[in-house]
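User: Can you model how 2-acetamido-2-deoxy-beta-D-glucopyranose sits in this protein?
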Amino acid sequence: MSIKEVSFLILCLLLCQKATSSCECCSEEISSKATIVNRIINVLTKGNEAGVTYNELEKFVDKFGPRMTGTETLENSIDYMLDLLRRNGLNARTEEVEAPFWIRGEEYAEMTKPWPKKFGVLGIGLSVGTNGANISAPVLVVTSFEELEERRDEVQGKIVVYNFKFKSYGVSVKYRSQGASRASKYGALAVLVKSVTPFSLYTPHTGMLNYDQTVPKIPAACITVEDAELIHRLSKRDNVSVRLFMGAKTLDKPAISRNIIVDIKGWKYPEEVVIVSGHIDSWDVGQGAMDDGGGAFVSWRALAVIHNLGLKPKRTLRAILWTGEEQGLWGAQSYIKVSLTPRHKNEIDNISIAMESDIGTFRPLGLTFSGTNPKSQCIVKHTLELMKAINATELVLGVEGSDIVLFNEYKVPLASLNNDHRTYFYYHHTNADTMLVENSTNLDTCTALWAASSFVFADLNHKLWR
Ligand SMILES: *[C@@H]1O[C@H](CO)[C@@H](O)[C@H](O)[C@H]1NC(C)=O
Ligand SMILES: *[C@@H]1O[C@H](CO)[C@@H](O)[C@H](O)[C@H]1NC(C)=O
Ligand SMILES: *[C@@H]1O[C@H](CO)[C@@H](O)[C@H](O)[C@H]1NC(C)=O
Ligand SMILES: *[C@@H]1O[C@H](CO)[C@@H](O)[C@H](O)[C@H]1NC(C)=O
Ligand SMILES: *[C@@H]1O[C@H](CO)[C@@H](O)[C@H](O)[C@H]1NC(C)=O
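Assistant: Here's the modeled complex, given as structure tokens:
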């Protein structure tokens, strides 16, 4: 999950709500699919597909580890996936994507005054480095952009430390994304940002930033919640100084990667598409098992299970494993974004719904749905009623997602995997994003929800109304 979705998350915080009203559309047609839905659920929860999603994900993330855009590892993992998909009898192809080519390089940060202490640190993605030198400077701690404005006269020549109070990811991530340029405006040399998480066992979190092109680009790194709090406490009584080194740089040439596209062709409306997706790239820490190995794997596994059951929907069911997501949704931009003459622009009217899982594959609860057309909301509601066996019947209304939010420009209905992700941001963009976050039972039920709901949408007589 990257930075671009943040405004939508905020929107979701404000506007997402559980849908309660009753509705009339298409209930008989949808009920008639209960047998198929139950076959999908059964084969995943107690049949020969049970445990497969977890096992395949484990093999994948343990073989490759993290898969940052620009790395050979990511491209090798894409080749591995193509082979795996084809061995599963699926029709898979790739499309080339260009993304910013950011390299972390060596990095460290330490306190030098009032006493020496090394910090756990992760440079923020797309940050500039420190030009091969150490930046050593006194710190100014602020808890908000408002405080930064009030104390702007104190910023010159300092390293600004953001020790905000975590509210929610959507609200607090602005310090990571905008903190550098906001402080640079008043002459800061660098910024250290408290990791954006509600919980920490001394884990620094990375992520992406956006530079304001009108002020100098200064280095930015995340430190742990513990160290941000420590610096803040110390700074009330003492002068605190820190030293920062970052070898980070963005290369002049773009990184070249590939989206993976897997199709089960519709037998009746082959040009109309239902998309299920997740992203295959990750940051360069942990294993990218949760963000977004889980989402990518429930998506291709949904198609594999449907294929293995010999089911054929009326519409084309397409799994997309996006690349370049973390640096700014570059895979989805190349697929759809209006300003970039994207490859699939002429398809837009024929996309019935675009679904993405990029907020965890914990215990599934249902779907979050963006569509405002009452008939389409009804379709999703009735479809979720078929998910009682896995207790995943909850419809939440609102826009959520990462890559798929780009489809929102065209009013394509979006759905994301609504799951019990209360701990998602504990692990997000950290070295703790490993296979230990994943759970085989939950991956099976998430795959079941994903496969069954996308199959129903793809098999309806009518595509979703906008
Ligand atoms: C930066 O500081 C560290 C710690 O004092 C030192 O080991 C290192 O050589 C310095 N690096 C440069 C480029 O000056
Ligand atoms: C902090 O540094 C300033 C400027 O160098 C100095 O005036 C002040 O006495 C120092 N405060 C402490 C607590 O050492
Ligand atoms: C959209 O789908 C319809 C059939 O449902 C087809 O006639 C039309 O060519 C498709 N458009 C594109 C751009 O694929
Ligand atoms: C079903 O989900 C609801 C809401 O998430 C939860 O309160 C309940 O405990 C779950 N029931 C079972 C049997 O898992
Ligand atoms: C996995 O999740 C299931 C269902 O949510 C739970 O019952 C089980 O204890 C979990 N397994 C592990 C190993 O945590």
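A couple of observations from the model: The chain has two domains: 30-101+253-459, 103-250. The domain at 30-101+253-459 is CATH 3.40.630.10 (Aminopeptidase).
User: Helpful, thanks.
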